UniProtKB/TrEMBL annotation:
Pfam families recorded: DSBA (PF01323)
Superkingdom assignment: Bacteria
MF term (GO), any: oxidoreductase activity
Residue intervals of the DSBA-like thioredoxin domain: 6-207
Name of the protein in question: DsbA family oxidoreductase
InterPro entries: DSBA-like_thioredoxin_dom, Thioredoxin-like_sf
Length: 219
């Protein structure tokens, strides 16, 4: 049984990060008799300068990428369909906002130590993209933390301290120095990288290829 180390550089605010992960999950499920993976999530901020109150998402995307209303509609359609194929629901019916995700990364760093990092990351994706929760509001954020079985008051203590601030900054700097400028980036066994919301077939092909290459190197 081949076991991979997979590091995912990602932001909760990035829809393609959840699409890519869900497709990786499907690939690993299909390959479960041959291989498994240990997954670690690492921080990336799409909008490090975003103020705490956030910004209406449609307005933000139009400003950042100069999108017309028609292009915005087309984007949402493509994203919804990609989510459906991956087994994830994007909700475009209510008011959606873009926020600064730094505090979410601090909580994810803590969740890694508690063995619940992937669980919390997926819960954040669902809260943000499906349930349209405003994760810049403390109680909404802590409710998600509690939902995955992590201690709410410990999380509150982290939010009101500078705990994990340096850890998040350090990891962000490390990956920036490695040349990672877009997310999601999937780093496999510290050597191979895939970027973007890849379909599950691409992950299957890549994992099989890496497995064969490493078997030859070990021979």
């Amino acid at each position: 049984m081949k076991n991979f180390k997979i590091d995912i550089v990602s932001d909760v605010m990035c829809p393609w990060c959840v699409v890519g992960y869900k497709n990786l999950e499907t690939a690993l499920e299909q390959l479960k008799d041959e291989m498994s993976a240990d997954i670690t999530w690492h921080p990336f901020e799409l909008n490090p300068d975003m103020p705490i109150e956030g910004q209406d998402l449609n307005e933000h995307l139009m400003q950042k990428y100069n999108l017309s209303e028609e292009q915005g509609d087309e984007n949402r359609k493509n994203m919804f369909e990609a989510g459906q194929r991956a087994g994830f629901t994007f909700n475009f019916d209510g008011k959606r906002i873009m926020i600064n995700s730094f505090d979410l990364h601090r909580l994810l760093m803590w969740a890694r130590e508690e063995g619940k990092q992937t669980k919390l990351k997926l819960a954040f994706f669902e809260a943000h993209f499906t349930d349209l929760k405003y994760l810049n509001q403390e109680e909404a954020l802590l409710d998600v933390v509690e939902k995955v079985g992590l201690d709410k008051e410990t999380a509150r203590g982290i939010l009101h301290s500078d705990k994990y601030v340096q850890d998040v900054r350090q990891e962000q700097d490390n990956f920036k120095q490695m040349g990672i400028t877009s997310v999601p980036t999937f780093i496999i066994n510290d050597k191979y990288a895939l970027t973007g919301g890849q379909p599950s077939d691409s992950f299957i092909q890549a994992l099989k290829q890496i497995s064969e290459e490493e078997a030859k190197q070990d021979a």
